[in-house]
Amino acid sequence: MIDFGMADTKVVVIPGDVIDTSLGGDGGGEPTERNSVLRLGPGLAQIGEQVSAVAAGVLHNSTDNNQWWVVGNKRRYVPSEGEPVVGVVVARHGEGYRVDIGSAHDALLPLLAFEGATRRNKPNLAIGAVVYGRVVVANSVMDPEIECYNSHTGKSEGYGELSGGFMFKCSLGLARRLMDAKAPVLNALGSEIPFETAIGLNGRVWVNTETPATTVLVTNAIKNSEFLSAKQCKQMVKELLEKQ
Hints:
Elements: E1 2-3, E2 11-13, E3 18-20, E4 39-40, E5 44-47, E6 50-53, E7 57-62, E8 67-71, E9 84-93, E10 96-100, E11 107-110, E12 130-137, E13 145-147, E14 160-161, E15 166-169, H1 172-178, H2 184-190, E16 196-200, E17 204-208, H3 212-224, H4 230-243
Parallel strand pairs: 1-3, 4-8
Antiparallel strand pairs: 2-7, 3-6, 5-6, 7-8, 9-10, 9-12, 10-11, 12-13, 12-14, 15-17, 16-17
Helix pairs in contact: 2-4
């Protein structure tokens, strides 16, 4: 059985490992009543009375909502419900679009899965358009489905078509680290230059800046940051800005 132990300890798991979720990431006793509901994310599954790893990677957990998941660096993206993705429209049909999100099968994007969309007022996306969406259907018997708004609030909340800018691919592990609000490379870039970004957990990143040269700089900085520490990221960004 794998015990998460202290919060600063990185635990590597492989398929079949049994996870001890009775202790929080801070290593303290039983979970509180607030977070007693156990939430399993990608890489974990409940088998009988035990929680086991079904993918290799580093075990993570959040003490705020008692959520556990495994972060790996797989080559192909496997959709999971609730994850944000960046995709490219590859086809259109009567009820919506087919979007390439890098998984084994294209995702379905319904025509009404946008903020304010109605039968008479529907978005008109061209083939090749880049969209930012959220996975709402992901299982082994159906093609994945995404939406470009929050169906609970009816608001776009940043999802939708991404106009202009530049999209590039990165590893799945890097994409997940970029989602952290404390991502060193994004904080270092944001303190020096203005830019917009949309990060998909499918290993695709969209960047938009004021000039093409700045877009290239941001893209290179993000790609180069994968194996750098926070201090090295700041130094790398500084050197790129000096060369611009």
